[in-house]
Amino acid sequence: MGSYSCCSPSSKESKQVESLSSLLKLVSEESRLKLLCILRRGEHCVCELMEHVDMSQSLISHHLKDLKDAGVVTDNKQGLRVYYSLTDKGKQITNLLFKISEKGVAL
User: Fold this and answer.
1) Residue 72 confidence (pLDDT)
2) Is the pLDDT of residue 106 over 60?
3) pTM of the entire predicted model
4) CA-based diameter of the chain, in Å?
5) Helix, strand, or coil (residue 86)
6) Do residues 64 and 73 lie in contact, with contact meaning Cβ atoms separated by under 8 Å?
7) Sequence-distant contacts of 95-100: CB under 8 A, at least 24 apart
8) What is the DSSP string of 14-33?
């Protein structure tokens, strides 16, 4: 049996596997998934997100920063509030994740 290019540290596939692993770790955390689920329905500020999840403002902000750094969410400052929404990448990822769930994939 030959070697697989995804296992070679310098291959393009290996870098894709590494990137995918990082993304899956980021979005697999339950609190972040809840935030993504809410943001699927549109733009929200942290104070609005706090009404729907049992997390502190600082924890929500921390998760949103991580998601923003990964290009999954974007922010828009309006006056004193910052509103968060999914980027196109975030919409694709979130829709795919929830589509998997809706298909009844047994876990």
Assistant:
1) 96
2) no
3) 0.84
4) 61
5) strand
6) yes
7) 95/40, 97/27, 97/33, 97/36, 98/37, 98/40
8) HHHHHHHHHHHHHHHSHHHH
